[in-house]
């Protein structure tokens, strides 16, 4: 990050009171919930008919996983991102800062949002006052413990703040201790490839199945797999339901980072997937 970028972010953090707001969070608490179909939230449930079935997708980054939930009705779009940190609650606050500062403008345009929405909320700058009942665009972002939220409405008459508060209230119902949060994360995997290197000839496709590494009683259907591109000697051939297929390019070690994600809660665990390719 350049000196000018650092100064830009520092000015923004001071303007919105970022550090002071984040410091009010209890680091020994976290949110663990099964994320619902958000069409059940009152501002959406009461917004009338015509919505297409919502779309859901899950993606992962180094420090957690995100759910992107999108509902559309004609030109109207409601898009919600829910990011759940993997190990440290600070990752959610960092996600808020990264998302807010993604603009290429000289100054970060987001402003301090409504009090009481998460530990800290940010909003898109107010434009021209909207006519009562007219469709508008709006953005709200906030962080609460280990979760970051971004709510974006386009050409919508839905009350963005009412919807954000309903989602925030739902999250607060799942407040648990940090130790309980860590215990609810996906289990560590055991066996070749997980705790010890799996051996295979170079050039031969190897399949690692999630079911082979889970402890007794854990159901593979409850989890998703996400894997990075791995080291230079390891080719990821595919990630399908409950399995990863790889191939060694040459003799020697190979490694990739795998994330096991509990789809309902977005809780995740990262681990090294290790191989030794040779005769």
Short note summarizing the structure:
The protein is α+β, with helices and mostly antiparallel strands and 279 residues long.
3D architecture notes:
The protein has 2 domains: 3-182, no CATH class; 185-277, Immunoglobulins (Immunoglobulin-like). A 7-stranded antiparallel β-sheet has the order 2-3-4-8-7-6-5. The protein has helices at residues 3-16, 18-23, 42-45, 90-100, 160-172, 178-184, 210-213, and strands spanning 29-31, 55-61, 64-73, 76-85, 111-112, 120-123, 136-144, 147-156, 175-177, 198-200, 205-209, 223-227, 234-240, 243-248, 252-262, 268-277. It is built from 7 helices and 16 strands. By secondary structure, the protein is of the alpha+beta class.
Which word captures the global form?
globular
Give the distance, in angstroms, between the N- and C-terminal Cα atoms. 45 Å
How would you sum up the major sheet? Answer: 7 strands, antiparallel
Which percent range describes the beta-strand content?
35-45%
What count of structural domains? Answer: 2
Count of helical regions? 7
List the helices and strands and how they pair.
Layout: H1 3-16, H2 18-23, E1 29-31, H3 42-45, E2 55-61, E3 64-73, E4 76-85, H4 90-100, E5 111-112, E6 120-123, E7 136-144, E8 147-156, H5 160-172, E9 175-177, H6 178-184, E10 198-200, E11 205-209, H7 210-213, E12 223-227, E13 234-240, E14 243-248, E15 252-262, E16 268-277
Parallel strand pairs: 10-16
Antiparallel strand pairs: 1-9, 2-3, 3-4, 4-8, 5-6, 6-7, 7-8, 11-14, 12-15, 13-14, 15-16
Salient structural properties:
279 residues, alpha+beta, four-stranded mixed β-sheet, globular, 2 domains, Immunoglobulin-like, seven-stranded antiparallel β-sheet
